What we know:
Blueprint: H1 2-27, H2 31-34, H3 37-43, H4 50-53, E1 57-60, E2 63-66, H5 67-70, H6 72-104, H7 107-130, H8 139-171
Antiparallel strand pairs: 1-2
Helix pairs in contact: 1-6, 1-7, 3-6, 6-7, 6-8, 7-8
Amino acid sequence: MLKTKKFWIIASFICVLVIMGTLLKSSSQTYDEQSLVPVMDKILANKPFEGLLSHVSFVYANDEVSIAHLGYSKFLEFFIRKGAHFVTYFLMGASLFAGMYLWRKKKLWAFLVALLVPLLFAASDEIHQHFTGGRTPLVQDVILDFCGATVGALLCFWILRHFEKRKNNRTA
Length: 172
């Protein structure tokens, strides 16, 4: 049992380090190096669902997000990029919670670490982007990243609580 626990602690922290490394590499690239638009222009040349999506319009970081303003591929890329932000930090928050809880067995401590580390990393990543050509650091992205980490940590917290209740019901 101890070896299995140690394995999952190490695996959780390795996952966090891989995520951080991937994010650092990604934020070191210019927008043009990362852009999905050329590929999407080829793959989605017939612009599926454009009529339906053309009714979607909102403001993010003081910029309009719509097909009319960005074009079809850039509009879709916006959602892919922001979804990637959320999912990546969701995984970071979940991995940190799991690793910290398995290591220390303190839910509140694990939860706080799972929120604080991604928040600080997201803020430093946006600062790093300031020095990368063609990139714009956004407070809104830090908030989105933090939301992803929070949901990941909350899900782990809820799952842990669920299993603890089931275990307590069996022993009662």
